[in-house]
Structure formats: C-alpha cells, structure tokens
Amino acid sequence: MAIAPITGKLRKRFWLDLSCALGLGIGAGYAYWYGSHLRDLERQESYYVKLERERAKAAQ
C-alpha cells in the first residue's frame, strides 16, 4: 500500500501564509512602535530636558 505524495500544498497556501505573516509582522511592529517605543522615548527626552534645566539653573 503506497502513500500518495503530498504535492501542491506549498503553492496552494503560499499567498495566505505570506499575507498573514506580513500582516501580523507589520501589525506587531506598529504596536511596539506606537505602544512602547515612542512612550519610552518621550520619557527619556523629558528626563534630559529636566537635567538641562537643572544644569542651567545651577550655572546662574
């Protein structure tokens, strides 16, 4: 009893797999960028502005 080879599986689902992978990847990238990275960057920038103001105040 021979088992029939599985043929055409990759070709049939290629576009679905590719579009899901790209969609999920881009979605995760946007979620990280706008949900975490920009918030951390804003917190860092405000800390440096505070340091610069304290340094300028101490220099006077």
TrEMBL record:
Keywords: Membrane, Mitochondrion, Mitochondrion inner membrane, Transmembrane, Transmembrane helix
GO biological process terms, semicolon-separated: mitochondrial electron transport, cytochrome c to oxygen
PANTHER family per record: CYTOCHROME C OXIDASE SUBUNIT 6C (PTHR28264:SF1), CYTOCHROME C OXIDASE SUBUNIT 7A (PTHR28264)
Entry superkingdom: Eukaryota
Listed name of the protein: Cytochrome c oxidase polypeptide VIIA
GO cellular component term of the entry, any: mitochondrial inner membrane
Primary subcellular site in the record, as a coarse category: mitochondrion
Transmembrane residue ranges: 14-33
Molecular function via GO: cytochrome-c oxidase activity
Species this protein is from: Hebeloma cylindrosporum
